[in-house]
């Protein structure tokens, strides 16, 4: 069976009409060109070039084969451009993101991704980290932005993406009650967090247990926006990524509570399977990291938090 080097030798000798010129074009010696074409002719079982003609001419069968050889080389070059020119990427990216990212910098990221790769098709899945990791392991996703790191045994690449500082927020009326109350007031107040399967929920339970609140009342939901709306309505203390509630705090709809000990941050990674577009996914991860950094810069420091007696600095 012939290979691409033999096809290239044949095509360029026909185009230039000379073994010498073909060798120069391909940066090899003339004997190497001759050997490649001889091997090609042995593979197909007949002569493809009339070596007695000047310039060298293809035989009748050689002219027919030349057309197919050019197509084969063009197909090879087109296939290689998939890996050499990322902007022309035209495949489908199955991307999983956690809801916090979907509600913060993901829209900007999606716009910039589409601008960079106009031929790209995106299948976006929004879910909690454990379910996204499961889908990646089952090869239902190519890439994810989530917590919990790389699953053991999975052949994948992991890179740090972003970190969200966490805080507790309450509607102004509830914040005023907490401000004039004590630890018991705080402990009797409901909390609002992510679903029980998500890490922020278990970390909140551990945090409150360390404060001596063994049986906290925690409302749970799967979406950040629902936590925010429930907090604004005064249904409890919302446990939320600080940057995502900047607008609500600036508008006076929520106040941040000052905690004696900070809540554990939400740390996210970009993870992608080694077998699914690894170079392209690395480029996507770099873009996502930049979008996350831009979002953090635009949603920086909040106004001074509300001090609540009993569980904060006083």
UniProtKB/TrEMBL annotation:
One matching Pfam family: HTH_1
InterPro entries assigned: LysR_HTH_N, LysR_subst-bd, WH-like_DNA-bd_sf, WH_DNA-bd_sf
Keywords carried by this UniProt record: DNA-binding, Transcription, Transcription regulation
Full protein name: LysR family transcriptional regulator
Native species: Chromohalobacter sarecensis
PROSITE patterns in UniProt: HTH_LYSR
SUPFAM superfamilies xrefs: Periplasmic binding protein-like II, Winged helix' DNA-binding domain
Family in the record: Belongs to the LysR transcriptional regulatory family.
Domain of life: Bacteria
Positions of the HTH lysR-type domain: 2-59
UniProt xrefs under CDD domains: PBP2_LTTR_substrate
């Amino acid at each position: 069976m012939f290979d691409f080097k033999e096809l290239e030798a044949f095509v360029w000798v026909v185009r230039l009409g000379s073994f010498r010129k073909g060798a120069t074009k391909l940066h090899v010696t003339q004997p190497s060109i001759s050997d490649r074409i001889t091997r090609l002719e042995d593979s197909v079982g007949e002569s493809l070039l009339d070596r007695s003609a000047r310039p060298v001419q293809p035989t009748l069968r050689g002219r027919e084969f030349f057309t197919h050889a050019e197509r084969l080389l063009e197909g090879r070059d087109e296939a290689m451009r998939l890996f050499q020119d990322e902007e022309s990427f035209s495949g489908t990216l199955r991307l999983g993101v956690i809801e916090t990212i979907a509600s913060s910098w993901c829209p900007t990221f999606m716009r910039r991704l589409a601008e960079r790769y106009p031929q790209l098709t995106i299948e976006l899945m929004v879910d909690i980290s454990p379910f996204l990791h499961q889908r990646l392991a089952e090869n239902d996703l190519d890439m994810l932005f989530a917590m919990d790191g790389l699953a053991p045994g999975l052949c994948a690449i992991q890179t740090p993406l972003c970190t969200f500082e966490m805080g507790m927020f309450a509607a102004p009326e509830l914040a005023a009650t907490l401000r004039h109350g004590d630890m018991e007031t705080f402990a009797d107040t409901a909390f609002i967090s992510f679903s029980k399967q998500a890490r922020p929920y278990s970390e909140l339970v551990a945090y409150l247990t360390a404060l001596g609140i063994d049986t906290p009342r925690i409302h749970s939901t799967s979406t950040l926006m629902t936590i925010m709306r429930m907090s604004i309505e005064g249904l409890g203390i919302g446990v939320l990524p600080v940057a995502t509630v900047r607008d609500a705090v600036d508008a006076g709809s929520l106040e941040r509570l000052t905690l004696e000990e900070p809540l554990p941050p939400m740390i996210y990674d970009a993870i992608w399977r080694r077998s699914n577009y690894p170079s392209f996914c690395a480029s996507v991860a770099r873009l996502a990291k930049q979008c996350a950094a831009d979002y953090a810069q635009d949603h920086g420091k909040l106004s001074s938090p509300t001090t609540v007696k009993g569980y904060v600095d006083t």
